[in-house]
Amino acid sequence: MAPIPHNYDYDLIVIGGGSGGLACAKEAIQHGAKVACLDYVTPTPLGTKWGIGGTCVNVGCIPKKLMHQAALLGEGLHEATAYGWDIPNKEQIKPDWNKLVESVQNHIKSVNWVTRVDLRDKHVEYVNGLGSFKDAHTVVATLKNKSEKILTADKIVIAVGGRPNYPDIPGAIEHGITSDDIFSLDRAPGKTLVVGAGYIGLECAGFLKGLGYDATVMVRSIVLRGFDQQMATIVSDAMVERGINFLHKCIPKSVEKQADGKLLVKWLNTEANTEHSDVYDTVLWAIGRKGLVEDLKLENAGVVFKGTKIEVSEAEGTNVSNIFAVGDVIYGKPELTPVAIHAGRLLARRLFGGSTQTMDYVDVATTVFSPLEYACVGLSEEDAIKKMGGEENIEVYHGFYKPTEFFIPQKSVRYCYLKAVAERSGDQKVLGLHYVGPVAGEVIQGFAVALKAGLTIKTLFNTVGIHPTTAEEFTRLNITKRSGLDPTPASCCS
Hints:
Blueprint: E1 10-15, H1 19-30, E2 35-38, H2 54-59, H3 61-80, H4 97-121, E3 125-127, E4 129-135, E5 138-143, E6 148-158, E7 162-164, H5 172-175, E8 177-178, H6 179-182, E9 192-195, H7 199-210, E10 215-219, H8 229-241, E11 245-248, E12 250-257, E13 263-269, E14 274-280, E15 282-285, E16 289-291, E17 323-325, H9 337-352, E18 366-368, E19 374-378, H10 381-388, E20 394-400, E21 417-423, E22 430-436, H11 440-452, H12 457-461
Parallel strand pairs: 1-2, 1-6, 2-3, 6-17, 8-15, 9-10, 9-15, 10-11
Antiparallel strand pairs: 4-5, 5-6, 7-16, 12-13, 13-14, 18-19, 19-22, 20-21, 21-22
């Protein structure tokens, strides 16, 4: 074990027990550091709280994917009869919300337990306390009983992540919920208004509708800001086809609880300047997230921050030499679990393992688990045009396709679409890949490796696909937008 300089208690204190913080803490241990990890969850206004593991495990990726899967299973159940399965009274089959929540929460609790055991086995000291700075080397952990524990360390990593925003309107906090609450909600959500059209809003509305609940998405400006906008439109159009309502160019004004317990929501259509209202059982805010810097008392350590995020160097360093930050709390980087994990590990290797490798935040793949999933890696078409200096310098290969599994149940293939955005010159280096369709994340993950390795259109088109899969459609692209030809295939095997 490495000696601890200046008689500090630890070589490293990690504030935050989410994906990035845990990865950093455990990696540091592997390189001989003495490490403490602080984690504390402030309950939501509804009172929801959870165990160690951060957003992803407790109120993010994992429960979201499980509920998305539940919705897909319901869809598959109704398709099964077309494939010859005899399912009596299938129209009477309904999901049991409370059973679903129980199953999801049981899994989460098992992960919480495994995480605690893993920290113990790796000799990371876990402190269930809210961390804040006393100075650049001293952290105060406020425990559940309000007592304080003082810890000192040579180096400190901030990995506190973020939490959902609430709008500043009457009734928002009192009567609304967020993604922090939906996965453990103790009642069926019923008719739900999801305010916000980012990926969290679309995913929540998608699985709620798939589970049989009326879902409406309120869009302030555009759908999936930051994503390729052609693909965003396709995703939202596919959701409309499935019966999800969209209120475009609208902002909420108030939420009022009625005598029967239902919620009267009033909103403004900013385009028409007209006021509207409707009654819902649940209002879910999905209007963005904030970094959890307010409780850190960063000023005591001299750490500079921007809004609710911390600006860091290429090596995740803050303006204070011994204090670093990773994950969703840092400014201007992808807010994704695998990003936080990889950055946390690389940081620990640099701090304690002699490594010089820094995190590459470019070309990170991601997936929106909407009913018809959307995955991408690299640049959007809009960003590629900007980067390459105009439309004349890029080539976009695109096509609609027909998933084999959609044929027999006669599912709509109208929105199954993909495109490759590339440089127009030379071997045409691929700048971005975009796919809407089944198992989008599984499809794009492999292509993400190829894109990072310098994939070109020439190489892509010289790759033989696996038939019949949807992933092979990338190898079959041959129509450019520039050509004006119809990108709709005549058959699946030609």
